[in-house]
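re: ur question from earlier - yeah i can do the single chain one, its not a big deal. heres the input i used so u can compare w yours
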Amino acid sequence: MPISSESRGQIAVFRLSGDIDKSMASEFDELLATAIDDGALDLVLDFSAVTHISSDGLKVILGEFKRIRELGGRMVQAAASDDVRALLDVAGFLPLLGEYESAEAAVAVLRAARSASA
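and the output i got, formated as tokens:
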């Protein structure tokens, strides 16, 4: 399966691989939406094994980004390759998602931010 997820408290981490394209977009959207519905306050997208993101994948990311933000949460990306990072940059997603070296680093920052605001 090209997508796996795990819950770390109120943070959901998604490890993706291969191409995030039209054939994967529906499953990806459903997994993100379910995590939000189940109470995730923050989402981490681990792109370390992603080779490409199509416009369908970008639409899913943007749609769920807007949804989690409206609920007071954050969506961040981690470990994107140079090619995927360039795509996210050109599409205008880097300022929205930010970038972290690893999923673990992203989780640590999100936890610290939640603790500081509590």
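The mean pLDDT is 95. not sure if urs matches, ping me
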